Amino acid sequence: MKIAILGNQARTLAGFWRVLIAHMREGGHEVVCLAPPGHEDSRRTLEALGARVLAYPLDRKGINPLRDTATFAALLRLLREERPDICYATTIKPVIYGCLAARMAGVPGVYAGITGLGYAFERDTPLKRAVHRLGTVLYRMALDRAQGVFFQNRDDEAVFRDAHILAPTTRVFIARGTGVDTERFAPCPLPPPPVVFLLVARLLEAKGLREYAEAALSLKEKHPDVRFRLLGPPEEGLGSVPLEQVRRWEAQGALEYLGQADDVRPHVARAHVIVLPSWREGTPTAVMEGMSMGRPAIVTDVPGCREVVRHMENGLLVPLGDVSALARAMDDMIGHPDRIPVMGAAGRRLAVDVFDAHRVASGMLRDMGIPQGESDTDTRQPSEPR
């Protein structure tokens, strides 16, 4: 079969979907990755997996209708030229414009991966409410007559159903996020004290950056040696946290900004605890990667996050937006360092047993009816069609 995979960045496709692509290639299928220009190292990674990589224009954060029209036209042209048997699109704009284009191009199998709700489902300002209304209409059009939609948790599925985005006949599957490559993200020893906390996320307000910085600042006087680190690429546009704000937090002594990295493993290895005070997730890949490497996590008790962290087993859950509770949870880890390796080991077991990327990939291919290679087994966690 010929399979087209659409994403909003080559870096995202290479980082999150490499195992799925490898399983497709192992099954003898041709894979074409469609992503905007840029991230040449990631494009080479995809090509090394045996995929072809084609570029299309995409304004990831903007709401300019002319640019979005250009995106749709380019995807329609590419899909008509490539004529894939299956199109799998992930993230908001590739799902909306990619699924519409695939249907118009006559692609037999059109599948969407909802990796989180994102800015389009935030409604705390008039602009966000307008974007939400537009996004709902576009999602409804895009997913009409899709062969299947993958969600990473039931909460997100419920939001789509409540908004009448999904038709009653739409096949829905729950996949455990993108999974985590438990061999690549292997366990590693904890570094020596003092405790180091690490937040891995794009510079977006919805990732809880402000809450993290404020909680860290409140703990610095009590624990001056403890480190609070932030790793992730800058963002622009709607919902972003300006890099200048991050620099101000650094100047206040709240945190250390590490910039961005194509390989997060060295940074995770130098940390004791992963933190993600996100407002909502699909399934947080950064947390699963930390779990796989034997690190406990402190996350908000919200959809997506609570699917991967079990309170007092492999980490701690805190209320959304509660800076004091987040600070207390981090203080608890500092005060009970003996819990860190125990929770870290529990997280590793959970990553292997439930979130392993090979299990996830095998299940997704089966759900899409894509034949698999002989080495794929039935040990994967089954999806849950609805």
Please provide a written account of the structure:
The protein has 386 residues and is an alpha/beta fold. The longest helix has 18 residues, at 65-82. β12 (297-300), α12 and β13 (315-318) form a beta-alpha-beta unit. α11 packs across α14. Strands 3-2-1-4-5-6-7 form a 7-stranded parallel beta sheet, with helices on both faces. A 6-stranded parallel beta sheet has the order 10-9-8-11-12-13, with helices on both faces. Residues 377-386 have low confidence and may be disordered. It starts with a strand and ends in a 19-residue tail after the last helix. The chain is built from 15 helices and 13 strands. The protein has 2 domains: 2-179 and 357-367, Rossmann fold (3-Layer(aba) Sandwich); 196-353, Glycogen Phosphorylase B (Rossmann fold, 3-Layer(aba) Sandwich).
Describe the structure in brief.
The protein has 386 residues and is of the alpha/beta class. It is built from 15 helices and 13 strands. It has helices at 10-16, 18-26, 40-48, 65-82, 92-104, 126-143, 154-162, 209-220, 243-251, 265-269, 285-292, 305-308, 323-335, 339-353, 357-367, and strands spanning 2-6, 30-35, 52-55, 86-90, 109-114, 148-151, 172-174, 196-200, 227-231, 256-257, 273-276, 297-300, 315-318.
